[in-house]
Amino acid sequence: MSLAHACRIVLLGPPGAGKGTQAQKLARRLGIPHISTGAILRAEAARGTDLGRRAAALMERGELVPDDVVLEIVQARLEQDDCRRGFILDGFPRSLAQAEALERECGVASAGLRVLSLDVPSEELVKRMVLRGRKDDREDVIRARLEVYRQQTEPLIAFYRERGALVPIDGIGSTEEVFERLMVQLGSCDGRAS
Ligand code: ADP
């Protein structure tokens, strides 16, 4: 198995689980890019592009942006050179349709991924998000996002488990503690090695 293969990481977990924070730390440690669809969409919205404006309306309601939009973003990003040694996907895939598109349209085999799923109970999630205070972190929007997560994203846990790619991680504890748990599972993965 090639090294690049070993560094294809997906961070899965409910909103507020700490995916963004951990993905950033992992990217720095492993020397591979962090690809956050949420961050890319927020950047588009801040720039006021057409796509950004349409996405912002949905994000502010806690709804998902259409699959074809995020897929195009991810596809273009994965084609860039810095993804050859691996990548960390954060916030994508978010539905079975997106996971299948990642396989078919981006040519990324599910069985070759390491899908790290961060487990955090819902009471803790709401607490963390209210503290974070992003534009879509109002309590009604948080509830909507948790519901979308349960319906659309949670089925991915079984999907990746069946493909032997799932690595469950306890997401309770300090940022450092959770990071160490993730690193234990990614021991052989180093995007800087050739
Ligand atoms: P969180 O996971 O903490 O809710 P994200 O930054 O991942 O935050 O996502 C914020 C919002 O961006 C989502 O609620 C959704 O509207 C949109 N979004 C991000 N990624 C996707 C995706 N893969 N598919 C559809 N919508 C997405």
Described by its quaternary structure, the protein is single chain
Unreliable parts: 1-5
Tell me the structural class: alpha/beta
Indicate the proportion of strand residues.
Answer: 5-15%
Shape by Cα distribution: globular
The main pleated sheet reads as:
5 strands, parallel
Helix content: 40-55%
Instruction: Report the total helices.
Output: 10
Give the H and E element order: HEHEHHHEHEHHHEH
Rg measurement, Å = 16 Å
Mean pLDDT: 93
Strand order of the largest sheet: 2-3-1-4-5
What can you tell me about this protein's structure?
The protein has helices at residues 3-6, 19-30, 37-47, 50-61, 67-78, 96-104, 122-132, 139-153, 155-162, 175-185, and strands at 8-12, 34-36, 87-90, 114-119, 166-170. With 194 residues, the chain is of the alpha/beta class. The protein has a 5-stranded parallel β-sheet, with helices on both faces. The chain is globular, with a radius of gyration of 16 Å. Mean pLDDT is 93; it is low at 1-5. It binds adenosine-5'-diphosphate. Adenosine-5'-diphosphate binds next to helix 3 and helix 4.
